[in-house]
Specification:
225 residues; alpha+beta; Glutaredoxin; Glutathione S-transferase Yfyf (Class Pi), Chain A, domain 2; 2 domains; four-stranded mixed sheet; binds glutathione
Length: 225
């Protein structure tokens, strides 16, 4: 048995965040795949919300990807995945929170209402506003890149990476737009795609579209049962 266990689901972007973090830390770990539509009975005992990812290490069980990743950064300090100063660490946490509370809700609304033409226009406008905010209030103020906090790759990069990887799917299925003036964001996305830890966990657009199709089909079966 490995000293670190990641309870995961292959297509889950949140579990991917933790997978990237484990690779960045160059740790030995085991991935235990959970079928989210047929969870083993024991899973409830380690996952209070019934979700992946969950991490187990040295008698500690942690859930929620943002918290797991911060746990890993503290438990295994090298290489550090948070900026150097308390002020910059606070900034990193603010942008990680922005991902959860602004960026992801805009993405989820766009995707879940993609078939409604009127809502799609408004939802795309909202997502474009969020992307411009990341560009002008975040990326352009933190430095020249390539990462969110300049030369140092951090948990803020990891927070967004799996969702930016899926951006082509948002374009294809819901007409998402990356605004013209988001050049630093575009460069950041390219740098993320080339990062070896991100690459090692990445899938192509066909995989993401098929995973989404299967997930929606299984949700439909579950709710009609
Ligand atoms: N806020 C959580 C979200 C995790 C999440 O939504 N995971 C999904 C899979 S991608 C899940 O386990 N869903 C199962 C369910 O909601 O029943 C995190 O950051 O870890």
């Amino acid at each position: 048995m490995s000293a670190i266990e990641l309870y995961s689901f292959a297509a889950c972007p949140y579990a991917q965040r933790t997978h990237i973090t484990l690779l960045e830390k160059q740790l030995d770990f085991a991935i235990i795949e959970i079928d989210l539509f047929n969870r083993p009975d024991w899973f409830a005992a380690i996952s209070p919300y019934g979700k992946v990812p969950v991490l187990r290490h040295a008698g500690v069980t942690v859930h929620e990807s943002t918290i797991i990743n911060q746990y890993l950064d503290e438990a295994f300090p090298q290489p550090a995945l948070m900026p150097e100063t308390p002020a910059l660490r606070a900034q990193a946490r603010i942008w990680m929170d922005y991902c959860e509370t602004r960026f992801l809700p805009a993405v989820h609304k766009l995707m879940s209402e993609a078939d409604d033409a009127d809502k799609r226009i408004a939802n795309n406008a909202k997502l474009a506003d969020v992307l411009r905010h990341i560009e002008h209030e975040g990326l352009r103020k933190t430095g020249a890149g390539p990462w969110f906090f300049g030369p140092r790759f951090s948990l803020a990069d990891i927070q967004f990476a799996p969702f930016l990887e899926r951006f082509d799917m948002y374009v294809q299925l819901a007409g998402a737009i990356l605004p013209e003036d988001c050049s630093r964001l575009r460069d950041w996305m390219t740098a993320l795609q080339q990062r070896s830890s991100v690459k090692a966990t990445a899938h192509n657009i066909e995989y993401h579209i098929e995973a989404r199709r299967q997930m929606l089909a299984r949700i439909a079966i579950r709710s009609s049962a």
